[in-house]
Design brief:
363 residues; Rossmann fold; eight-stranded mixed β-sheet; 15 helices; NAD(P)-binding protein
Amino acid sequence: MAFSLWTLAVSAVAVAILSFAVPLLLAELFPWRTLWIQRTSRPSVTTKSYKGRTALVTGARGAFGSRAAKAFASREIETLVLVDVQDCTGLKDEIEGELATAGKLKPTILVWRIDFMTFAGCKELGEKARELKALDHALMTMGMLSFNRRESPEGWETSIQVNFLSTALAALFLLPVLKSSAANPNPPVLTFVTTFGIYPASATMSVPKKGPYTKHLSNNKDGMQQAHQYGRSKGLLLYFARELASRTARTNGLRQVTINSADPGTAWTGLTGPNRAQLIPRLITDFAARDPQYCANALVNGVSAGPDSHGKIVMDYHVEGSFPPFMERASGRVAQQRAWEEARVEFEEKVPEVRAVYEMLEK
C-alpha cells in the first residue's frame, strides 16, 4: 500500500512537471511553437510595387540582406541603397543583370561601404543618407555571429559592437532622414532584425548588482558566454528598439516614423554555417530552418508594415505584440532603461553629433 502511494505521488509530480514546469521553461528559453510555425510558413512579399520609393538595406551582402534587396529591386523601387562593410558592387551588377533578363526597369542603385565595427562608420552612414531626397524603408540586417571573443576598435566585444551599438547608432543617425516619398501613403519604416536566440540567452542577461550593464555583457569569456553572445547582443538591440519606439511615439521633434522589429526565422546561411560543427546549435537550426528567401521576405514585409506595427515585432505576415517573457517583467524594464542610457552615454562621448538626435527625441 505504501509503495502504491509512493508511486502515485511520484507519478503526480512527474505529471505536474510535464504539464506546467516544462511548458514554462520552454516559454522562457526555447519558443519551439514559433520556430515550428516559421519553419512551415512560406511568406511572400505582400507589397506589389515600391514605385517611386527609396529603400536602404544594411548588411546587403548577407544572405537575408541580398535577397531583401532583390525583392525591392524586382518590385519597381526607384532608389536602392546597398550598405555593407564589404563592397556590394557585385550585388549591384547581379541585380541589374537579373532585371535586364526579366525585362524590368533598373532602379538607381547606390553602393555604400560602411564599417560597422566603428562609430565613425555609423556617422558616415548618416552623412551619406542626408543626400537622399527621401527614405521610405530602412532595413537593418547588418549583424555578426562570433564564436570566439574579439574586441572592436571601440573596445566592445564585436557582437555587442555590431549587432547592438553600431546598429543602434546608425538608426539614430537615419531617424531624422526617414521621409516618405510622394508615392508612399504610409509613414517611413525603420526595422531592426531580431531572433529567437534571445530566448536561450536570456538566462545570462540579468542586470549586475553594480557596474555598467552593457559592459558586463561585453566583458564576457569564450565558451558558453560567447555561444550566447549573438542572442545577448540582439536582446540589447530589442530593448533599444522598444525604447526608441516609445520615445518617437511621444515626441514632437521628429516626423512620424514607424519603428519595429522583424523576426525572419532561421536558415542555413554563411552566418549560421559554423553551427553545423556543434551538436545542439545544429539540431536547433535543423529543427527550424527554412529557405533564406522566406526569411528575407519576412523582413521585407516587416519594413513595409503599417503604423500598427510601431514598437512591435513583425513575423512573416502578422504583427506580434508580445516580447520575450523576461523583457516584460519589471527587471526587464530596468534592463531596458540601463541599455538605453548606457548607449547614450557612450554615443554622446564618442560621437557628439548624435546629441542633436537625442534632443529631437526629448521635444
